[in-house]
Amino acid sequence: MPTDHRSPAPFGRALCAMVTPFTQSGTLDLDGAQRLADRLVAGGCDGLVLSGTTGESPTTTDAEKAALVTAVREAVGDRAALVAGVGTADTRHTVELARAAEKAGADGLLVVAPYYSRPPQDAVEAHFREIADASGLPLVLYDIPGRTGTRIEPATLVRLSGHPRIVAVKDCAYDLLGTQQVLSRTDLAYYAGCDEQILALYAIGAAGYVGTVANVAPELFRAVLDAFDAGDTGRAALLQRRALPLVESMMAAGLPGTVTAKALLGALGLPAGPVRAPLRCADRATTEALLRTYGELAAGTRQLQV
């Protein structure tokens, strides 16, 4: 049973679901990835999640995923934890990716529930246990049924919490009751995976967040957590609300966060590049709107000395 009000933070509190930069011709941009990773860590990120959904894992090769971990590790050294996304719909393939990520220098693994085939809960549990047994790295289980079609049920998470290498959950289930059930019965570290829920989950004991908006504003939600930890819950709530327009424009405007994050990064002159098909790059009007919203937020946060 947990002994504190807050779950442990094995990879730090403030994690960015980093985009995977590509060149304009669509090849992997390792130099850009290193520059972006260095900027994110300097901006306050404790950890980086590579090759997650935001990192376009469905359209990067196994070799690219391993090369990305190696390059980013070279750039950030021991200043940040690296969590490698290795989840697929195939248990054998996921095991291969887990071992490759460990060899490349990752500190942990992000493993999504198997998608499309929609296995029952006993099969989901067996899937995660096989991956946890396959390497020496700790696992973050990624619960995002809106994309996978398969929930990691709270009871399943409670059972899996007994495995020594299953240590955390990235929570995109939108089930506050289920989250509290697991937090109250296990020592699993919960990370908010939806930017609009960062403060809400942190307030009930989550470890931190894995954010997409952090690609363009790495200091933003860290300031929310810092304010809350300092006991200034009013300021924390204000900062969370101030972030809402950017969160809405990036995450709830009908385009994937990968597309909007890359559009905004590119407009700011930062490494990103295009997205890979079947995704399509944001059009000019969308990019300009994102840039306006970002500018308004930046001006407001300067006034608040964030």
UniProtKB/TrEMBL annotation:
Binding site for pyruvate: 54, 210
UniProt keywords, alphabetically: Amino-acid biosynthesis, Cytoplasm, Diaminopimelate biosynthesis, Lyase, Lysine biosynthesis, Schiff base
Documented EC number(s): 4.3.3.7
Gene3D superfamilies: Aldolase class I
Domain of life of the native organism: Bacteria
Catalytic activity, reaction form: L-aspartate 4-semialdehyde + pyruvate = (2S,4S)-4-hydroxy-2,3,4,5-tetrahydrodipicolinate + H2O + H(+)
Annotated metabolic or biological route of this protein: Amino-acid biosynthesis; L-lysine biosynthesis via DAP pathway; (S)-tetrahydrodipicolinate from L-aspartate: step 3/4
Active-site residues (renumbered): 142 (proton donor/acceptor), 170 (schiff-base intermediate with substrate)
A Pfam match: DHDPS
Molecular function in Gene Ontology: 4-hydroxy-tetrahydrodipicolinate synthase activity
CDD domains: DHDPS (cd00950)
Principal subcellular localisation of the protein: cytoplasm
Top-level EC class as recorded in UniProt: lyase
Protein's UniProt keywords contain Cytoplasm: yes
UniProt-annotated site: Part of a proton relay during catalysis, residues: 53, 116
Localization per record: Cytoplasm
Subunit composition and interactions: Homotetramer; dimer of dimers.
NCBIfam families linked: dapA
Function: Catalyzes the condensation of (S)-aspartate-beta-semialdehyde [(S)-ASA] and pyruvate to 4-hydroxy-tetrahydrodipicolinate (HTPA).
Name of this chain's protein: 4-hydroxy-tetrahydrodipicolinate synthase
